[in-house]
Specification:
The chain contains four helices and eight strands, in the order ααββββααββββ. By secondary structure, it is α+β, with helices and mostly antiparallel strands. The protein has two domains: 47 residues; 145 residues, Immunoglobulin-like (Sandwich), CATH 2.60.40.10. Strand 7 and strand 8 form a beta hairpin. The mean pLDDT is 85.
Length: 197
Protein backbone atom coordinates (compact mmCIF):
# COMPACT_ATOMS: atom_id res chain seq x y z
CA UNK A 1 0.00 0.00 0.00
CA UNK A 2 2.84 2.37 0.68
CA UNK A 3 4.16 1.63 -2.77
CA UNK A 4 0.95 2.71 -4.40
CA UNK A 5 0.99 6.08 -2.63
CA UNK A 6 4.48 6.84 -3.88
CA UNK A 7 3.42 6.18 -7.46
CA UNK A 8 0.40 8.44 -7.15
CA UNK A 9 2.41 11.25 -5.52
CA UNK A 10 5.11 11.02 -8.19
CA UNK A 11 2.42 11.34 -10.88
CA UNK A 12 1.01 14.38 -9.08
CA UNK A 13 4.48 15.97 -9.16
CA UNK A 14 4.72 15.30 -12.87
CA UNK A 15 1.38 17.01 -13.43
CA UNK A 16 2.47 20.02 -11.37
CA UNK A 17 5.72 20.24 -13.32
CA UNK A 18 3.95 20.18 -16.64
CA UNK A 19 1.42 22.82 -15.49
CA UNK A 20 4.20 25.18 -14.41
CA UNK A 21 5.97 24.54 -17.73
CA UNK A 22 2.79 25.46 -19.59
CA UNK A 23 2.37 28.63 -17.52
CA UNK A 24 5.98 29.64 -18.22
CA UNK A 25 5.53 29.00 -21.95
CA UNK A 26 2.33 31.06 -22.05
CA UNK A 27 4.01 33.95 -20.21
CA UNK A 28 7.06 33.78 -22.49
CA UNK A 29 4.89 33.84 -25.62
CA UNK A 30 2.89 36.77 -24.25
CA UNK A 31 6.07 38.74 -23.56
CA UNK A 32 7.37 37.92 -27.04
CA UNK A 33 4.18 39.20 -28.68
CA UNK A 34 4.18 42.40 -26.59
CA UNK A 35 7.87 42.95 -27.43
CA UNK A 36 7.23 42.52 -31.15
CA UNK A 37 4.33 44.98 -31.03
CA UNK A 38 6.50 47.58 -29.27
CA UNK A 39 9.35 47.15 -31.75
CA UNK A 40 6.92 47.49 -34.66
CA UNK A 41 5.46 50.69 -33.19
CA UNK A 42 8.90 52.17 -32.63
CA UNK A 43 9.96 51.56 -36.23
CA UNK A 44 6.58 52.70 -37.59
CA UNK A 45 6.80 56.00 -35.70
CA UNK A 46 10.36 56.55 -36.86
CA UNK A 47 9.34 56.72 -40.50
CA UNK A 48 5.75 57.78 -40.34
CA UNK A 49 4.44 61.08 -41.54
CA UNK A 50 2.81 63.38 -39.00
CA UNK A 51 -0.34 65.44 -39.17
CA UNK A 52 0.20 67.72 -36.19
CA UNK A 53 2.90 69.06 -33.90
CA UNK A 54 2.47 67.43 -30.51
CA UNK A 55 4.65 67.05 -27.43
CA UNK A 56 6.51 64.08 -28.97
CA UNK A 57 7.44 66.11 -32.07
CA UNK A 58 8.63 69.04 -29.94
CA UNK A 59 10.70 66.68 -27.77
CA UNK A 60 12.29 65.09 -30.85
CA UNK A 61 13.24 68.50 -32.26
CA UNK A 62 14.61 69.64 -28.88
CA UNK A 63 16.76 66.51 -28.63
CA UNK A 64 18.24 67.28 -32.04
CA UNK A 65 19.13 70.79 -30.85
CA UNK A 66 20.97 69.37 -27.83
CA UNK A 67 24.04 69.35 -30.10
CA UNK A 68 25.44 72.87 -30.02
CA UNK A 69 26.14 73.29 -33.76
CA UNK A 70 22.78 72.15 -35.17
CA UNK A 71 20.93 74.85 -37.12
CA UNK A 72 18.05 72.80 -38.58
CA UNK A 73 16.11 69.96 -36.96
CA UNK A 74 13.62 67.77 -38.85
CA UNK A 75 11.06 65.33 -37.45
CA UNK A 76 11.02 62.42 -38.01
CA UNK A 77 14.75 62.44 -37.29
CA UNK A 78 15.34 59.61 -39.78
CA UNK A 79 14.40 62.19 -42.45
CA UNK A 80 12.23 59.69 -44.29
CA UNK A 81 8.45 59.57 -44.46
CA UNK A 82 6.01 57.29 -46.22
CA UNK A 83 2.63 58.53 -47.43
CA UNK A 84 0.05 56.58 -49.41
CA UNK A 85 -1.55 57.84 -52.60
CA UNK A 86 -4.82 59.78 -52.06
CA UNK A 87 -3.62 61.03 -48.63
CA UNK A 88 -4.00 64.60 -47.46
CA UNK A 89 -2.58 66.44 -44.48
CA UNK A 90 0.44 64.29 -43.62
CA UNK A 91 4.06 65.43 -43.64
CA UNK A 92 6.94 66.46 -41.39
CA UNK A 93 8.00 69.23 -39.02
CA UNK A 94 11.13 71.32 -38.82
CA UNK A 95 12.62 74.02 -36.60
CA UNK A 96 15.58 76.37 -36.98
CA UNK A 97 18.06 77.76 -34.45
CA UNK A 98 19.81 81.10 -34.94
CA UNK A 99 23.52 80.65 -34.22
CA UNK A 100 24.32 84.27 -35.10
CA UNK A 101 25.18 86.90 -32.47
CA UNK A 102 22.24 89.15 -33.38
CA UNK A 103 18.60 88.96 -34.44
CA UNK A 104 18.12 87.48 -37.89
CA UNK A 105 15.33 87.25 -40.44
CA UNK A 106 15.06 83.93 -42.25
CA UNK A 107 13.17 82.62 -45.25
CA UNK A 108 12.62 78.96 -46.04
CA UNK A 109 11.67 77.12 -49.19
CA UNK A 110 10.88 73.45 -49.66
CA UNK A 111 11.12 71.86 -53.09
CA UNK A 112 12.08 68.67 -54.85
CA UNK A 113 15.88 68.52 -54.80
CA UNK A 114 16.91 70.14 -58.13
CA UNK A 115 19.75 67.63 -58.54
CA UNK A 116 17.27 64.70 -58.49
CA UNK A 117 16.20 63.60 -61.99
CA UNK A 118 12.54 63.15 -61.09
CA UNK A 119 11.40 62.96 -64.72
CA UNK A 120 13.62 59.92 -65.33
CA UNK A 121 13.26 58.18 -61.95
CA UNK A 122 9.60 58.84 -61.11
CA UNK A 123 8.14 59.76 -64.50
CA UNK A 124 6.60 63.03 -63.32
CA UNK A 125 7.67 66.66 -63.58
CA UNK A 126 9.33 68.49 -60.71
CA UNK A 127 6.53 71.06 -60.69
CA UNK A 128 3.94 68.32 -60.11
CA UNK A 129 5.75 66.98 -57.04
CA UNK A 130 6.33 70.54 -55.76
CA UNK A 131 2.57 71.13 -56.03
CA UNK A 132 1.92 68.34 -53.51
CA UNK A 133 3.16 70.70 -50.77
CA UNK A 134 0.38 72.71 -49.09
CA UNK A 135 2.82 75.47 -48.06
CA UNK A 136 6.29 75.45 -49.57
CA UNK A 137 7.79 78.70 -48.25
CA UNK A 138 7.65 81.20 -45.43
CA UNK A 139 9.66 83.51 -43.20
CA UNK A 140 10.38 84.07 -39.52
CA UNK A 141 12.66 86.08 -37.19
CA UNK A 142 14.83 84.65 -34.42
CA UNK A 143 16.89 86.26 -31.68
CA UNK A 144 20.52 85.25 -31.13
CA UNK A 145 20.82 81.62 -30.00
CA UNK A 146 17.05 81.16 -30.11
CA UNK A 147 15.10 78.20 -31.51
CA UNK A 148 11.73 78.59 -33.21
CA UNK A 149 8.98 78.47 -30.56
CA UNK A 150 6.51 77.08 -33.07
CA UNK A 151 8.04 74.51 -35.41
CA UNK A 152 6.82 74.60 -39.00
CA UNK A 153 4.52 71.79 -40.11
CA UNK A 154 4.95 70.86 -43.77
CA UNK A 155 2.00 68.90 -45.17
CA UNK A 156 1.54 67.03 -48.44
CA UNK A 157 -1.55 66.25 -50.50
CA UNK A 158 -0.63 63.14 -52.46
CA UNK A 159 -2.97 62.63 -55.46
CA UNK A 160 -4.38 59.32 -56.75
CA UNK A 161 -2.08 59.31 -59.77
CA UNK A 162 1.16 59.93 -57.82
CA UNK A 163 3.73 57.33 -58.85
CA UNK A 164 5.06 55.00 -56.14
CA UNK A 165 8.52 56.50 -55.85
CA UNK A 166 10.98 57.98 -53.34
CA UNK A 167 11.52 61.72 -53.86
CA UNK A 168 14.08 63.88 -52.03
CA UNK A 169 12.73 67.25 -50.85
CA UNK A 170 15.23 69.98 -50.00
CA UNK A 171 14.50 72.19 -46.96
CA UNK A 172 16.50 75.34 -47.69
CA UNK A 173 16.84 78.18 -45.17
CA UNK A 174 18.35 81.51 -46.21
CA UNK A 175 18.82 84.88 -44.56
CA UNK A 176 15.83 87.13 -45.21
CA UNK A 177 15.42 90.85 -45.80
CA UNK A 178 17.64 93.03 -43.70
CA UNK A 179 19.97 90.15 -42.75
CA UNK A 180 22.46 89.31 -45.50
CA UNK A 181 19.63 89.03 -48.05
CA UNK A 182 19.53 85.65 -49.77
CA UNK A 183 22.74 84.24 -48.27
CA UNK A 184 22.53 80.53 -47.53
CA UNK A 185 22.04 79.67 -43.83
CA UNK A 186 21.40 75.90 -43.78
CA UNK A 187 19.62 73.11 -45.63
CA UNK A 188 18.81 69.43 -45.33
CA UNK A 189 17.01 66.74 -47.30
CA UNK A 190 13.91 64.75 -46.42
CA UNK A 191 12.90 61.67 -48.43
CA UNK A 192 9.22 61.14 -49.21
CA UNK A 193 8.21 57.66 -50.35
CA UNK A 194 4.83 57.52 -52.04
CA UNK A 195 3.19 54.16 -51.38
CA UNK A 196 0.44 52.60 -53.50
CA UNK A 197 -3.04 52.67 -52.01
Amino acid sequence: MVLKLRKISSKKGAIELSMSTIVILVLAMSMLVVGLILVQKIFFVAGSAIGEIDKGVRTSLSETFSKSDVKLAIHPSARTIEIKQRTQGQGFAFAVRNLDVGDANFEYEIEVDPSFDIQDKCEIKKAQADDWLLISSGSFTLGPGKVMENPKLVLFNIPDNAPPCTIPYLVNVEYGQGTRNGDHYTSDTLYLTVLPR
